[in-house]
Each structure stands twice: as structure tokens, then as C-alpha cells.
Write a structure and sequence with these properties.
By secondary structure, this protein is of the alpha/beta class. The chain has 22 helices and 16 strands.
Amino acid sequence: MAGIKRPKKFKPTKLKMKLSWKNIIIYVFLILFTAFLFFGVNSQDGNSLSGEKIKTVPLSQLISEVKKGKVSSVEVYPNKIVAVSASGKIESFKEIDSSVYQLFKDAGVNIGQTKVVIKDDTALNNWVAILTGVLPIILMVAFFWFIFRQARGAQDNIFSFGKSSAKLFSKDTPKTTFADVAGVDEAKQELTEIVDFLKNPNKYKAMGARTPKGVLMIGPSGTGKTLLARATAGEAGVAFFSIAGSEFMEMLVGVGAARTRDLFQNAKKSQPAIIFIDEIDAIGRQRGAGFMGGHDEREQTLNQILVEMDGFTPNEQIVVMAATNRPDVLDPALIRPGRFDRRVALELPDVKGREAILKIHARGKPFTKEVAWEKIAKRTVGFSGADLENMLNEAAILAARLGKKTIDPSDLEEAATKVKLGPEKKRLQSELDRKMTAYHEAGHALVSWFMPNMDPIHRISIVSRGMSLGHTMMEPIDRVHETKTRLIEEIAVMLGGRAAESLVFNEVTTGASDDIAKATEVARTMVMEYGMSELGPINLSGEERRMPYESPNISPDMAAKIDAQVKNLTDEGYKNASIILKKLRSKLDLLAEELLKKETLESEDFAKLIGPKKAALATLKV
């Protein structure tokens, strides 16, 4: 019947037992111990091993039964007599030294007419006595041995705190070479000399040169700092010790310094070698910059690293490589020449670098012939190497989920959008909410399309992703410099959604909160760092305060002027966006209606609907 669920068939759970020599010995020991205890108990309470009940009677009664001829045989044990009759067995205890023949003779019984069986269980009883007496002692000894062993293990762990936890990648480990790294050609060129130093040290010693002691790699997350360090070790063919900065820190004071000493001692034994410390800012922060004067354990660890890198013992065949994305917080004594002699800056890859990275990570994945890596590289401006690798992996997962045999451009497009904005979300929205979202995104798109310096539109969508209800994506162009004009246009584009809401609904919503935050951040950066305001070319951001109680570098009057300049920039951007949308109200309605129908518009669809960008700029002047 519909609506009635049948109970699932019960499946008995299968018990799996792991058998090993250790477990087998334990099981056999327990079985034997239980059997001996059972036997010992049976030998004392009158029960035979077969489970037969034996009645205990006085010795005079047993002799009387024998005298009456009711007993077929007599079993004689050292301490007891068992009489076997048709009705069962009875037993009676006697003294060990007494003779059964003498007992029956004194009682006037002719024992010769009864079968007498002499049974000697002395040896077995002795074994039972020994085992029942010794086994508790053995168990106690085993228990205390286990406790002492556990305590010793804990003690070993305590004393092993000072041992380095660095991972060693020896020469036999599968190598990572410079061929596996792309998008950082300048950094690879800089590290090629380090490889040559480690391979041919005598060539440089002849010229009086010494091996650089340290290489500090700085750059955003995901740009390949760790991968580049492993590639350097792979190219040089030397031992590679890898450790994170946080692994030096422990609860006990002095552990970090001990681990540092142990790490460098191990590296000296394996030299030539490379020591790689990832996230060195965890232990390399400026000393004495804390609220209470610093962290003793961290500073001791840093002091030990400083001594090892530039102490009295020269480490000619050891190069220390470190990576961080916060070089501004490092201690000056750590980054000076003689310790970290070289600084290698890694940046987000350009279009050529992204194309090379994509081709490296595309190895082993089936792609269709329609995939154009150059086009995808242009599409992924701002992606790091880790982002590109994740994008290709997401594309492969999507293609496999859809049952495809190859990965096509649509999979890559969806994966790129997912990495940047998050997965699609099916949210319940009313028609008014969808309409507001459509006009909001149409406002962004139109303001961007009619701004001369903005990037072309790539996609407009009212499909929810991540925390946003919709998105307007552009095809960014690699730039080195940003102009004041373009930044003001960017602020106008960010506020285009709010301007569209106000124009169409005569109301504002919370959907523009993230746009407002980003526009305010751009405007404040223009005023405080770039000097793009009436305050002139002055840097007002200041350095990070070392102590919470230190006064800021900006006076209250200057702070008020900064706020006023930031407001002027955001007001100018909002005004420009409002002017464009008022003049293009018909196109705004047309674009919003198309978004409500299709939900997503690509660049080609948008251009056909609104018109070419050059023609739009010619018809509109802000």
C-alpha cells in the first residue's frame, strides 16, 4: 500500500576479529587459566569434569555401603575414597598417610571381594596448586610492567619534545623540479644560483664566495612558495628538511630552541641540505612587540635560529629557505644579510604564467579539443597557482558527476565561477526579491558597460552563489598601474546596484551592503595610501602600532578631513551611476526583464541586447 514502508530485512552484523600472534597467546592463556580454575574448583566441591554429581558422606557410611555389597568398585585417592555403585558415586575423605586396606580391615570388611582402583592425582593437584598460587603473581607483575611501560613511554615523549619534527625528503624521494613550477620565472632564475652553489661549491670557493645562508620567499598565499622550495631541493639533489614555524612552539619553555638545535644538527649530518621553514612569521616576529614585552618561548626560538644561521660554526653546505606572506612583521635581525641574504618575491601569475600553470596541472586529465588554455588564462585574472589547480580539479569532479568522458569548456567555466564565488544555491525568493536582484545586477552591468575605462562584461546572473543573490562578472585585464579616473569609475560600478534600486523602487535594500563596503575601502585607500584626493600626495595610513596604548599617527582633525574626502569620492561615484541609469532607464528595464527570464546572460547575449561598448560610449557622456 502507498504510504506504508516495509521494514528493512535484518542483516546480522558480522564480527571481525583481528588475529595476531600477540592476541592468540593472550586467548590461549585465558582459556588455560579458566580451565585450571574450573578443574581446581571441581576437585574441591565434589563435581567431576564430566559434570557428574558426587555425594560426600562420612567414612563410616562409605565402609557400611562396601560391607553390604552395594559397591562395585572403590577408587582410592591420596586424600579421599570414592565408592562407585549402581545408584551413583559417593566419596569420603581420609588422611593422606592412612592405608585403605587397613581401614577396611579394622572395620571388619573383606575388601578382597571389591574391586580397588588406586588413582594418584598428586602431580595434577600440585600443578593446580602451583598455577593457582603463581598465576596471581604473574598477573600482578604483568600489570605493573604494563603501567611502567606506559609511564616510560610518556617519559620518552616528554624528553622527545626537544627533537625536531621536520620531515626529511631524501634523495630517494620522488623529485619535484623546476619543470613542475610555472608562473614564477624570475624566482626560478634567482634560485638557480642556489642550486649551482649546492652542486658545485668548489667553483665559488675558488673565487672567495660563500654559499648564501638564507633565502626568504615572500608573496601571497597559493603562489607556490613551498612548491618552489621543494623544486630547489629536487634540482640540487640534496636532503630537504621541511617544517612549519608553528611546530617549534610548545607548552614547555625552551622546547623551540631545543628543536632548532636538533634540526640544524640533523641537517649538518646530511649536508649538503636545505632547511625549509614555512610560515616563518609564526616564530620570526619582531621581538619585544607584544603587549607584555613579547613571548619568551617564541623569542628564545628566534634567538636560537639567529645563532644557528650566523653563529660561530659556519654551515657552508646548508641553505635555509623560508616562506611568509607577512614580511613586514619579521624581526630586522632575521632578514639582514648574513642570515637571509636573498629575498625572492612571488606575485600572482600573469596571463602567460597562468597558461603555463594550467598546462602543468592539466597533465593526466582528459580535455576536449575545444579547450583553449590562452582564453582560460585571460578569464582567470587574479587566480593564484593553487586556485588554478583547484579549478581544474573542480572541473574534473563536475565532468565525472555528469558522466562525461572528457572535460569541456563549460565544465571549466562553471569550476572557475565556483572557485571565485562559491557553488550555486537554491534559495526560496519571492517575485519581488528576484525583481530587486535583477535590477541590482542590471545596474552594475549598465554602469560598467558605459564607463570608458572599465573591463568588458563577462557574465550577469541572478543565480545565488555563496553569500550573494546574484553577480556581475567582468573580464579583467592585467594591469600594473591604476589611475584615479578608473578607480572612481570602479566605485561608480560598485554603487550601480544601489542606484538602480533607488531609481526603480524608490527604496534601498540590504543587498548593497557588500558593494558599499568595497567602495568605501577603495575610496579610503585612494585618500590614505595613493594620495588621490585634495589632501595631496601624503601617506596617512601610518605604520602598524607596536603597542595598543600607543597613540595613532593621525590627529582628530586630519581624521575628519579623511572621512570627508572618502565621502566625496563615494558620492561622486554614486552620482555618476545615477546619471547613467536615469538616461538608460529603458535599457535597464530591458536587461532586468531578460535576467528574470533567463537568470544568466553571457557577454554575447548582453552585447546583442544593449549594443557594442564603443557605440554606447558615443551616445552617452557623463
